Input
Amino acid sequence: MIDGAAVDERIYEIKRFIEKPLPSEAPSNLVAVGVYVLTPEVLSWLTTMRPGPSGELRLADAFQQMLAHDRPLYGQEFNGTWLDTGDKLGFIKATIQLGLKNKEIGPELKKFIKTLSL
Output
């Protein structure tokens, strides 16, 4: 989840990242979807970091460090569909939705779904 302020049409200056807040604590309806344009500065921040509990370096952690040091960070809002694959049901929903749109398997998948007793 992103907390930020609009600086132009669909452009936001990001103030902080909040990982999976409760709906009542969400500062906005904006999320980071994993598509980034990175400057060399971001990569420099990553080299100063230690892996987190998962053993991975996370861009969100580098972004937080940059923000803590008053470095600017911007995001662009776009229109699209959010497919949350972070849990089993979300993964299945995303798979079905994308499968139905796929030219190769979509027609057969649609036929299969129609045969199910729903």
About this structure: The radius of gyration is 19 Å. The CA atoms of residues 22 and 117 lie 35 Å apart.
